[in-house]
């Protein structure tokens, strides 16, 4: 089971780049599907958000081991896609996420810190 995730949030397409954004979304989804097929990540889930007045328009949640996510983040293809995304879509963000056992470990550390502070 995946213990690490990668949250790739994005805003709305830059004005005039909407057609590029549609193609990029398909390309990114295909990239992650290939990684799943090759066993380089465990899974991924794309999501689009309904309009809500904020900057976040959607995200991809990629799941894998710490090692898989580290290799993904260091890969040339991933970094090329991020660079291209920044030119097409506003508010690109890439953040590691704790899942499964890593999530529980982090919650235990947080609870311990709470006990020390309060």
Any overview of this molecule?
The chain has 118 residues and is α+β, with helices and mostly antiparallel strands. It has a single domain, classed as Alpha-Beta Plaits, CATH 3.30.70.100. It has 4 helices and 4 strands. A 4-stranded antiparallel beta sheet has the order 2-3-1-4. The chain is globular and about 50 Å long. The mean pLDDT is 96.
Produce the secondary structure layout.
Layout: E1 4-10, H1 18-37, E2 43-48, E3 58-64, H2 66-74, H3 76-88, E4 93-98, H4 100-117
Antiparallel strand pairs: 1-3, 1-4, 2-3
* Largest sheet geometry: 4 strands, antiparallel
User: Unreliable segments (pLDDT under 50, ≥5 consecutive)?
Assistant: none
The largest sheet has its strands arranged as 2-3-1-4
Domain module count = 1
Helix content: 40-55%
- Through-space gap between termini: 34 Å
Specify Rg, calculated over alpha carbons: 16 Å
CATH class: Alpha Beta
Mean of pLDDT? 96
Count of helix runs: 4
């Amino acid at each position: 089971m995946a213990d690490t995730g990668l949250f790739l949030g994005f805003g709305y397409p830059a004005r005039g780049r909407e057609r590029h954004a549609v193609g990029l979304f398909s390309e990114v989804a295909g990239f992650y599907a290939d990684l799943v097929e090759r066993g380089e990540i465990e899974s991924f889930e794309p999501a689009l958000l309904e309009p809500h007045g904020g900057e976040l328009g959607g995200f991809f949640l990629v799941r894998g081991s710490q090692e898989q996510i580290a290799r993904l983040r260091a890969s040339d293809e991933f970094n090329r896609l991020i660079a291209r995304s920044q030119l097409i879509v506003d508010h690109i963000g890439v953040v590691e996420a704790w899942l499964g056992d890593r999530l529980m470990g982090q919650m235990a550390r947080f609870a311990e810190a709470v006990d020390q502070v309060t």
